[in-house]
Amino acid sequence: MAMMKPLCCLNGLVQPVAEARIDPLDRGFLFGDALYDVVRVVEGSLLHLDAHLARLRGGLERIDIVVPAALADDCRQLVAASELETGYLYLQVSRGVAPRSHQPPSGIAPTVLIVPMAHLFDAPASRALRAISQPDRRWMHCDLKTTSLLGAVMGKIDMRDAGVDEVLFVGDQGQVREGGSSNFFVRHGDVLETHPADGRILEGITRGILLELAEQIGLPCRETPPLLSEREEWQEAFLCGTLTGVQPLVELDGEPVADGVVGAWTKQLAEALEKRNRNDS
Ligand code: PDD
Q: Are residues 171 and 87 in the same domain?
């Protein structure tokens, strides 16, 4: 992998990460009063940047954080300056700096941090992922890409201790919502099922593209929660996301999913996504 320069962009200023300073009274640090997004970088170009920024801006508006003006330019400037080829940008926007008080002051200048990360992506449908499931102990607004990720972090610790690749969060009726950092699809009765974007999941950019691609390919889809009680009927399952791409889930809670191999629809969608990403980059 070509070397990337360890730079970041803080409030519009590109500088070495080691020199960037964030105020201890920043509300992102004190309250998790911040949103983030993750944009994949392919051969130096930003993949689906508009969709990621639209999601970020929409979230910021909903929680009344001032929307920064120059996000797209800052991202492009940083990719060029850091010489990042393959990896992703992490973007975080917090409400900004103010004397500590739960009630947010209005109209303060947000803190905008963008950091490049070098990352090697797995080839489409090349892994055989294993997961555990557990009750969803996150909050009610998973559609907001909040930096307050303690629920997800706790799930990821359990996942690590179980020696698997992902944790799946499940509602109290056994509805599989999503992974700790990925969305989840199953093929059930020759229909693709994925949890509806009803606030209990992050409406993934990859998920949205896959729903479009499935329609183009002619794979029927239903935005309905996959149910753990029906897992014996699942014909295949996969996880998806900006960093994951599309990867098959072959084992859940120590038992194989379907016959424990990569499913045909998973492969087809993984390849269609790869092709679409190549065209869009
Ligand atoms: N997370 N669900 C959750 C809970 C996620 O954190 C993510 C991605 C996704 C997939 O969304 P998208 O296709 O837009 O990447 C679904 C990023 C990659 C992260 O937190 O690093």
A: no
Q: Total domain count for the chain?
A: 2
155 lines ligand 1 (CB under 6 A): no
202 CA distance to ligand 1 middle (Å):
7
Query: Number of helices (H) and strands (E), helices first, in the chain?
Result: 6, 15
- Token pair 């990569």: residue: 262
202 shares a domain with 138: yes
- Strands 7-10 and 111-118, how do they pair? antiparallel
Q: State in Å, rounded, how far the first CA of the chain is from the last one.
A: 19
Count other C-beta atoms under 10 Å from residue 259's C-beta.
9
Domain C-terminal end among 95, 118, 141: 118
Per-residue pLDDT of the chain (281 residues; tens, 9 = 90+): 568 999 999 999 999 999 999 999 999 999 999 999 999 999 999 999 999 999 999 999 999 999 999 999 999 999 999 999 999 999 999 999 999 999 999 989 999 999 999 999 999 999 999 999 999 999 999 999 999 999 999 999 999 999 999 999 999 999 999 999 999 999 999 999 999 999 999 999 999 999 999 999 999 999 999 999 999 999 999 999 999 999 999 999 999 999 999 999 999 999 999 999 999 87
> Hey, what are 280's tokens?
């869009």
Q: What is the CA radius of gyration of the chain?
A: 19
- Is-contact 59 67, C-beta < 8 A? no
Ligand 1 binding pocket includes 38 (Cβ within 6 Å) = yes
Which token pair is 53?
Answer: 């920024």
Please tell me the residue having the least CA distance from ligand 1 atom 1: 181
How many CB atoms within 10 Å of residue 41? 25
Q: Which CATH number does the domain housing residue 60 bear?
A: 3.30.470.10
